[in-house]
Amino acid sequence: PTSLPTRSVTAVSGGTQIGAAASTFAAPFIVEVRDANGQPVAGASVGVEVLGPAELISHPLHTSDANGRVSINVRALDQSGPITVLASTPGASSRAVVTDITVKPCPPHP
I want to staple 11 with a disulfide (CB 3.0 to 4.6 A). Which of 19, 37, 69, 98 is the partner? Predict the structure, then answer.
């Protein structure tokens, strides 16, 4: 028999954002942890990584809330380009990927 993953982590919201360089994105990135039966998991450790011209505002290790959700705040760096937010939790069969996030360039200085 195949064993089911103990948890899954999926993206809930936050994709399709465009943020200004050197500023915080308007909305946080939300991921959700669920158990093998599809129920939210409270208190799960979730590791977060940002790829592209941005950085996490908080620590890269988060704990899911009572609804199994983690809110991730990201600040764009001072260059433009695409960003991907990755979230994973021990025991998950895959990690959440939040994409279609873009940093628009800073306006030129006069």
Answer: 98
One DSSP character per residue, the chain reads -PPPPSEEEEEEE--S-EEETTSB-SS-EEEEEEETTS-B-TT-EEEEEEESSEEESS-SEEE--TTSEEEE-EEE-SS-EEEEEEEE-TTBSS-EEEEEEEEEPPPPP-
Cβ neighbours for 101, distance < 8 A, ≥ 6 positions apart: 14, 15, 16, 17, 18, 19, 25, 29, 52, 54, 82, 83, 84, 85
Tell me how far apart the alpha carbons of residues 29 and 25 are, in angstroms, rounded to a whole number.
9
Distance separating alpha carbons of residues 12 and 18, to the nearest angstrom: 17
Residue where the block lists tokens 């994973």: 88
Q: Which residues of the chain have pLDDT under 70?
A: 1-6, 106-110
